[in-house]
Structure formats: structure tokens, C-alpha cells
Amino acid sequence: MEHKLAELKTRLLEVDDLQYAGAVLYWDQATYMPPAGASARGRQLGTLTRLAHEKFTDAAIGKLLDDLRAYGEGLPYDSDDASLIRVTRRQYERAVKVPATFMAEMSQHFNTTYTAWTEARPANDFNRVRPLLEQTLDLSRQLADFFPGYDHIADPLVDNQDYGMKAADIRRIFAELRAELVPLVKAITAKPLTDDSCLRAFYPEDQQKAFGEMVIKRYGYDFERGRQDKTHHPFMIRFGPGDIRITTRFNEHDLGDGLFSTLHECGHALYEMGIDQGLAGTPLATGTSAGVHESQSRLWENIVGRSRGFWEHFYPALQQTFPDQLNRVSVDTFYRAINKVQPSLIRVDADEVTYNLHVMLRFDLELEMLEGKLDIRDLPEAWHQRYMDDLGVTAPSDKDGVLQDVHWYTFNIGGAFQGYTLGNILSGLYYSAALQAHPSIPAEIAQGKFDTLHTWLKTNIYTHGSKLSASELTERVTGGQLRIGPYIQYLKTKYGELYGIQ
Amino acid sequence: MEHKLAELKTRLLEVDDLQYAGAVLYWDQATYMPPAGASARGRQLGTLTRLAHEKFTDAAIGKLLDDLRAYGEGLPYDSDDASLIRVTRRQYERAVKVPATFMAEMSQHFNTTYTAWTEARPANDFNRVRPLLEQTLDLSRQLADFFPGYDHIADPLVDNQDYGMKAADIRRIFAELRAELVPLVKAITAKPLTDDSCLRAFYPEDQQKAFGEMVIKRYGYDFERGRQDKTHHPFMIRFGPGDIRITTRFNEHDLGDGLFSTLHECGHALYEMGIDQGLAGTPLATGTSAGVHESQSRLWENIVGRSRGFWEHFYPALQQTFPDQLNRVSVDTFYRAINKVQPSLIRVDADEVTYNLHVMLRFDLELEMLEGKLDIRDLPEAWHQRYMDDLGVTAPSDKDGVLQDVHWYTFNIGGAFQGYTLGNILSGLYYSAALQAHPSIPAEIAQGKFDTLHTWLKTNIYTHGSKLSASELTERVTGGQLRIGPYIQYLKTKYGELYGIQ
To answer: Do B247 and B360 lie in a common domain?
Structure first.
């Protein structure tokens, strides 16, 4: 069995190399690649995707997994080897259902679409990407149809990002959450609008970058194992255990944009950096689901990075960095500004309270498109309608409407968005578990110390990589399943205090 | 045959994708990769190298080439298809002699060695890389031995970079050149030393970069199809027809370093950018040999970029960029400074006249190592001895001795250096052919116009890619074979005038 396990690992390492090589090409495309490089790059990524898929779905891997099944089942459930055999089998069984040529076609299509999107968005020209998006919808439906027997056509796509979840589960959770959020938004918007003009002074990019990087070093982001670059739509990306990068963008007229994007992506990176390095080179060496990943980005961005204690510690340093802009602004004013609740157009800039309404809206639109009830041609209008209905705002253009998020222009339709809200819910759940174990955490944050929290997260969540599924992890960490209580409690306490609501 | 040709092209495209994906990974490693990323990166590059080699040496490609041979021979010699079949066969026959696992092992070894070198050089610690270099020598000898029947063990390694050349040919050419250079160096060093102190003021990096990029735009470097980044040891790299990048380094206390490195790498890039885009995705879409490639970097760096006419045009702009440093320096003083001849330690900083002595020295050491006459342990001492004998200088340390060039730390020993001097010789030969066709070129350069020269080079050299071998190309462009006459004439005229030598 030792020999077979070693052979399995060797084969998985080759797949890992191809996948992470592809990640480097993707990162380069999104950061530094000159415009004319796009078409060859798309083809190169398609080739790497196809080869990785071919190598992973090789029948020899299936045979090894069969031969190793009994051995794996005889080991402790969460041992490295048992987990490797179990999780690889799950992914293998999924992967063999999709032909490698389809994977390559999809990769190349996403690449073309991404390039078109980077041009279409500034030009506010949805028609430029419309035919591509129609193809995306078609490919997304084809992808789902490789997994017959689903309850809802979105199920296989959701399951791929958040294993174990179905469209119906998400709908139920989202309905529960919406029932809590809508009255909260209503209560807050009945109050006077927060003044956040202090964020709109001129904040030079270089100093923004330096301040953000100072903070994430304190969080524990290791610049020997990563770096930060600029891009259109920020993301975290892993190339291996020693190279876990983040990207951001800056707006010199909005201090919040770049800073909270940096903290957000850093949260994702801390998760990846905290994975047991012994798992490197296997499918276990990455975060376990979109939702759990997002729980970490949102925890470090919001629960920590937008807390009063955090700014009691860091605000003097921020004032030193931007004395002209902030010396006459109190920490209380600043704290209120970065937590201003106001229904708005852009998801990534949305406040914590209304944010989930943006996500739910996209999730619903995805389902309607997949069900064939919403034509791509009618999507911009449907988008505007939903924003009016749910948030009471209307985008002046598609640029800030249907063109705003990169996801549909670089990924399939279905499965890309629910993780954001699952992540918010989980961030509240996990943070409350951390507080239960270490009630001193908020006081430490107010001293700029993150060790206790970071270590608890590493030990209880990060280190496992994908050994445990999201559901297994949540059970283990919180003694129960995903539930909205602690997250809603967090929102109500924080925003109740901020807006004087009982 | 159409069908077989199409299948050949499809297979070659896959190889091309893997190779250029590897190039992206290499570029990233040499520019932005965080330190801890090195070990996974080495493995990823090894995997890509192995897969590219496996795909290229697939027996199906051999079969297609056999089937297509008669068809190719029936077409005009320099037609795209005939060239593709002929050149691919030559490369295929070479590649099948080397096992893919050996290629992967070598790639990974070079990677480890490169990383060690980036640490060993600043630390001036040759012992840190010595065992790795011993392995490199061993691998280099093994590589040569996959090609039995050579006259000299370096022959297969030289042939791989400069097809058609043998160690004995290089030795003969180098001896001829040395016989001309040594008296010239002697005559110049008998004259008073040029004052180049104007280059050693403080020149801020950002302005250096902006000035260099302004110049290469005028040369014709297309920033839509490329970019410039910083690295340890400058290089040009191609990822596809629309993505041809250069790298440089800056020394804020030496204006020449960054500027001429930028012009040099731009010369390489102009070659790659000028290749007929219809050849993209095939082995024909790259420069034909190390020597021809270097002829273009040296032509644009030296023959153009260090000419009096060039600076008559650009010096006012340089003075505007650096008024405090240069306003009191005349163009004549500046021109003399950038063409100062003085035996020195660092190859890449060497003047045009002594430069080739650096190259010959390395070439000779390579042969001695490969012949087993020089042990790696004795290399630093042999290096110092040769510098004393040939150039009359002694490095204070290995940092500026055996550790100075990246080549032996990222490539096999044998074949990496001769191209630099072959390139110099060819630059003189090709430039004199261009002048014969267009005597107006120097006058145009003095007006900052490069179109006539660039177009002539594109039409006569660049566009062909690898369709013609170096020898075929030289024959066609100059009506004869490689000869040192025009290059020596160029040096004697330029430096005779500069140093008042008959």
C-alpha cells in the first residue's frame, strides 16, 4: 500500500504542478500582461487546464484509489492519508464526468470573455460581452448536465464550490437571513445618514499601500511567502505553500476601497498560509470550500478590520500617514464612516448589512438564467429591476450594473456567489467560537495583537486544508451546523450600537 | 498531406503552450516571486519541461515528419511549410536523443542552482554553489554524451545554441579576433584614461527607467506587446507573438548600467517582435541562433546606442531629464564616457573593445571543465588567473569573479557564451550590409529616426524567425559566411577616432 500511496502522490503532484502553473499564468494576465498577450495566454491556459484534467482523470488514478480504499478506511478519519484517499476520490469521481476537451474549451472561453470584460466595463458596453455571456450560460448548462439526476440544474455548480450544498439549501438559508436583514436595513435607513466624507479626501496610492501592508504584516501575512500587486478585481491566489499572493486596487478618492480589499484578500491568504505544509502538493492543500474561504476574508476584513477596537489601536498610525486628511477627524467619526450603512450599487463596496442583499440578488438571477427563465438579453434590465426592488437604488449604467463583478466573465454562471453570504454567516459562527475559547480576543485586537485569534483559527480551521468538508469542519469547530444566529447577533449588536437601535 | 500538416501543427502548438507557460513561470521567478516560492516553482518548471519534451518527442511527431518529408522537399526551400517540416525534423532528431526525465532533472537542478546563486553572489560565497556547479558539470557532460560521435565534448552543447558550429570553429574565429583585439586594446590603454565620472552622479531609478523606455519606443519596441521589469540579471523573454518582455536592473550611481541594458534587451525583443506572426505557435517563431540573437542586442545597444549621432539627437533630452547631473557636461564628454575603453572585471559592463576577451575567457574555461582538465574546485583561481593574463585585472572576490554571470547557474556548462562574441561579429557584418543598402542610416540615427534600419532588419532578418539557419541567413544577407572584417573595421574606425589611433 505504501507503494501505491506513493504512486498516487506522484501523480497528484504532477496535476498540482500543472494547476499552479496555470495559476501563475492567470495571475500574470490579471496584473502585468501587456494587452496583446491575451490570445496566446488564453490558449496556454486552456492547454494547462486540459492536461491537468487529463492527468487527474487518468484511469490509473481511479485504479489506485480503488486499491487504496480499504487501506484508507482503516486509518483514522482525519489522518492525512485517509483524508487524501477520501477527498481525492470525491474529486476524481466528479472530474471523470467532464471531458478534458470541455474543460479546455471552457477555460479558453473564460479567458476570451475576461479580456472582453476588461474592455467592455470601462466602455459601459454590455453588448460587447453579451454573445460571450450567452455562450457562458450555454457552457454552464452543459457543465451541469454532466451530472444528471440533480434536483436543480444549479446543484452540481453549487456543489463544486460549496460541497454538500444544493440550490434549495441556499434558498432556505438566504430566506431566513433576508427575514432578519430587511427589517434591520429598514431601521437603519430610517436614521440620519452617516457622514463618511472623511474617506473621500485625496489619499495617495503609495501611502495607502504602505499602510495596508503594515496592517497585514501585523495580522500575520508573511511577505517571504507572498506579495501584493494591483489588478482590476482583487483576488488571492496560491502557487504553492511558499507563494500565496494577494492583489488589490486603489482609489485615491476613497480610502476604504484599497484598504479593506487588502484586509479581505489577506484573510483568504492567512487561511492558505496556515494549511499544514505536509499536505502541500495534494488536493488537500487548499481551503475546503468557497464559503469557508470567504468566512476568513470577511472575518479579517470586517469583524476584525472594521471593529472599534482595531481602530482605537491603528487610527493614530493612519492619522500619521495622512495628517492633512485626518488630523481633524476623530476616531469615532472615522469608525462610523467605515461602517456607514447605505443601500448602494457596488457589491464589493457595500456595507456589512446590505452586502448580503447584493449576493442573494445575483444568486437568484443565476438560478433564473440556468432555469431558462431569464434571457441574457434581458439580464441588464432584470438587474436594474432587482436593485430597485431589493435596495431601492438604480445604476446609471451597466458598468455599475451587470458588468460590475468579474465572476460571470471568468467563471460559469451558477455557484460563484452563494459562498460570499455563506462566508459571512460562517464568519460570525467561527468568531463566536473563538471568543468562547478566548474571551480576551477583542481586548487584544484593541492593542493591535492578533496572535490568539490567528493561532486559534490556524489550529481549528486553517491547518486542515480540505481534509474536512465545510460541514464537518463547522460541526467540529462549533458543535453544530451552519446557522445564522451568531452572525445576525453580531450585526444587530454592532449596528444597534452605531445607529441607536434596540 | 494537408491533414497531416494540420495534425503536426496542433501537436507543436501544445508543445509551444507548455514551453511558453514555463517561460512565464521563469520570468515571474526572476522578477516578482517571493523567496519561499522557489522550491515549488522549481518543481513546476521541471514538470512543464518534462511534459513539453515528452509531447515533442512523441513517436507520432516522428511519424508525421516522415510522412511529410517528400511533401516538404517539394515546396520552395524557404516557404513556411517546407521550413517547418525541415527545422522541426532537425530539432526532433536532437530531442529524441535526450530522455524527458533527464530534461526535467536538469530543469529542476538549474532552478535550485539559480536560487542558490541569488544568495551566494551577494554573500560572496562560492562554496554555497560549488557542489551544485559540480552537478551542473556532470549533467552537462551527460547531456553531451547523448550525442556520441562528437569531435569535442562541447560540440553538441555549442550546436544547440549556435546550430552548425563546433568548438573548433569557434576556437579558430576567436583566435582570429583575438589577434586583432589585443593590439587594439594595447594601443588604447597606452593613451590617457577617459574621464567617465559624469556617469557616476546620482541618477534616480524612476527617471532612468522613463528615459530608457522613451528611447526604446523610438527604436520601435511596442509596449502593447511587451513591458519592462526589474531583475537580477537582465534578459528578454517571449511568451507568444503578442507578449515579448524585457527586464533590466538599475544602478543609481552608474547611468550606463540600466540604460544600455534596456537598449540591449530591446534589441533582442525587436528581433522577436519582427518575426512573421504567421509562424506563431511553431518552432520557427523564435530567433534562429544565440549568435544572430546577440547580433541584434549588440547592434541596438552599441552600434546604434553608443554612436555619436545617436547622442547628438538624444543628449539634450537626457540633459533635460538630469539637469543637475549633466548640464555642465558636453555631448562630446558624455560620448567619450559611454565609450571608455578600460580592461575591467564585469562582462556586462565591459566596453565594446575588451568585451570579447571576457567571452573568450569563459568559453575557454568551459572547454577545460568539460574536458576534465579543470576541476570546479579550482575554477575561482583559474578565473582570477585568466583575468590577470588577458585583461590585467584581478577581482577582489568571487562575487565579481566566478559568481558574476548567471549562466552557469541556470544553464549547462558549454554553449552559453560563444554566442555573445559571434553576435558582436555578426552585428558588424549585418550593419555594414544595411549601410550598403541604405547609406542614409547614420544620418537618420542622428535625427532620432530608426525606421529605415529597423525595416531593413525586419525584412532581411527578423521576419524569417528560425526558417533559415544562422549560416543560411548570413549567406543571404551578406553574400558570404561569418567573417570578422566589418566588425573589426567598425571597432578600429570608431575607437581610432576616439583615441587618436591610426
So the answer is: yes
Asked if A129 contacts A141 with a C-beta cutoff of 8 angstroms, the reply is no
A243-248 and A236-240 as β-strands: parallel, antiparallel, unpaired? antiparallel
Q: In this complex, which of B17, B21, B243 lies closest to A37 when CB atoms are compared?
A: B243
The tens digit of pLDDT for each residue in A398-443 reads: 999 999 999 999 999 999 999 999 999 999 999 999 999 999 999 9
Using a CB–CB cutoff of 8 Å, tell me whether B58 touches chain A. Answer: no
B37 interaction partners in chain A (CB closer than 8 Å): 225, 239-240, 242-243
Phi, psi of B243 (to 5 degrees): -150, 90
Which range marks the domain in which residue A232 is found? Answer: 167-499
| Half-sphere exposure for A112 (CA within 13 Å, toward CB) | 16
Count up the domains in chain B and report the number. 2
Q: How far apart are the first and last CA of chain B?
A: 62
pLDDT tens column, B379-394:
999 999 999 999 999 9
CB contact under 8 A, A240 and B40: yes
Nearest CB to A34 within list B24, B51, B227? B227
Average pLDDT over residues A122-143: 97
- Does A265 participate in catalysis according to the annotation? yes
CB contact under 8 A, A21 and B44: yes
Q: Which of A213, A265, A301, A352 is catalytic?
A: A265
ipTM (interface pTM):
0.94
Please give the interface size between A and B, counted as residue pairs whose CB atoms are below 8 Å apart.
124
Q: Residue A396 — pLDDT band, cuts 50, 70, 90?
A: confident
The pLDDT value given to residue B232: 86
Asked if A58 reaches chain B (Cβ–Cβ under 8 Å), the answer is no
For residue B234, the domain's CATH number is 1.10.1370.30
Mean pLDDT of A50-75: 97
Same domain, B109 and B56: yes
3-state DSSP assignment of residue A332: helix
- The reply to whether B223 touches chain A by the CB within 8 Å rule is yes
Which residues in chain A have Cβ-Cβ distances shorter than 8 Å to B275? Answer: none
pLDDT of A1 reads 85
B175 and B105 both lie in a single domain: no
Using a 10 angstrom Cβ sphere, with 0-12 exposed, 13-18 middle and 19 or more buried, the burial of residue B176 is middle
Q: Let me know whether A193 and A260 are in one domain.
A: yes
Q: How far is A19 from chain B (nearest CA, A)?
A: 9
**CB–CB of A21/B48 below 8 Å?**
yes
Chain A residue with CA closest to B43: the answer is: A17
Helices (H), ranges, B96-197: 100-123, 126-145, 155-161, 167-189
Q: Is A245 on the interface with B (CB under 8 A)?
A: yes
